[in-house]
Structures are given as structure tokens and as C-alpha cells.
Amino acid sequence: MFKLTLVRKTFALIGILGVFATATGSAVAATKDTQWQKHHPRREQVNHRLNNQNKRIHAERKEGEISKAQAHKLHREDRQIRKEEHAMASQNGSHLTKQEHKTLNQQENAVSKQIGK
What we know:
Layout: H1 2-39, H2 41-63, H3 68-91, H4 98-114
């Protein structure tokens, strides 16, 4: 009886420690990923440009410089660039290589030239 109770307590303790270790490890990993993603300069620059272009598209649409269809097309192109940025970063440990950064900037330049024509 005494041995059975001790064994149960031991297994319960091991289970609790396992759950705690898993939860703690996940929380630490999530914090590191968030900090890394937030402060990686190439990703930050690409996403800042996308946000700026989004504001420019809205402003041009509001001023009547571009049609609703043109704004929709430009937003769709920006969304595609953002998806591509996310996919590239997920393959490279949450960062962009210099070549990927260059490629995304070229795509953003093409969209930027279309805004306000």
C-alpha cells in the first residue's frame, strides 16, 4: 500500500513537472520569436514600406486620384508581397536574406510606381 501510494505520487509529480516544462519552454520560445521578428531590420523595413503604401493607396483613393478597382488591385498586390515576405521569413528562421529583401523591395517599387498615376 505504501509503495503504491509513493509510486502514484512520483508519477503525478513527473507529469506535473513535464507539463510545466513544456509550457515554460513554449512561452520562452514565443517571446524570443516575437522579439526576433519585431526587430529584424530587413523585415521591419519591408513591412514599414507595405504599411506606408497602404496609406498612400487609401489617400489616393480618397482624393479620387485612383479608382476603386485600381485601389483594390494595388491592395491585392501588396497583400501578395506581404504573404511572400512571411513565407520567406518562415523558411529562414524569421528573417530575410539580402537577396530576398532586394526582391521584395523591387516588387514594392513596382507597386509604388502605380500609386497616384
